[in-house]
Amino acid sequence: MMTIRLAQNADLDSILKVVETAFSDEENKVIKNLVLELSTETASPSIKSLVAEVDNQVIGYVSYSPISLKSDSSISGYILAPLAVSPEHQKQGIGSNLINAGMDMLTKDGVGVFLVYGDPAYYGRFGFTEEIGHSFVPPHTLQYPFGWTGMMLNDTPVPEQPIQFECVSALSKPDLW
Fold it and tell me: Model's pTM, two decimal places?
């Protein structure tokens, strides 16, 4: 039986193990640093991380970080990064459950836009679209622009003009984009 709950400081070692096994050697160092920085960074609104557990063992992790829009403060937004599931538990819907739990949490919190930088074929299944991604301009140039997608939550209207945003310092590194 899998449970999803908010991550706690005590989960950090387990989360890092999941990241280490879920990503290639060159990626996991960058992602582990990101996880460590997200775990200690203070933001308002707060960074929210979830873990998936089976038998009290962390097998999946996702983090949601707030963004601040430069020209429209009425829309609150979050970005999903990173998402990791240990290899022996992949292709079993755990990543999907973590994303859906995050969407529910952010919707309940009144968030207006939810963004992600990743495989559009995967994230598109949840309703992320390139059109929404184009409405929100990341702080750094994207290596893979087609992977930048988003969705509006809580009936928030799509901005008429693209809006630039800033993110938490852990995500504000050009090599992550």
Answer: 0.94
Q: Six-digit token pair at 155? A: 């009936």
Number of domain units in the chain: 1
CATH code assigned at 29: 3.40.630.30
Rounded to the nearest 5 degrees, what angle is found at the Cα of 119, between the Cα atoms of 115 and 121? 105
DSSP codes, 33-66? HHHHHHHH---SSPPEEEEEEETTEEEEEEEEEE
Q: Which amino acid is at 40?
A: T
pLDDT digits (tens, 9 = 90+) for 86-139: 999 999 999 999 999 999 999 999 999 999 999 999 999 999 999 999 999 999
Q: Tell me if the bond preceding 66 is cis, omega within 30° of 0.
A: no
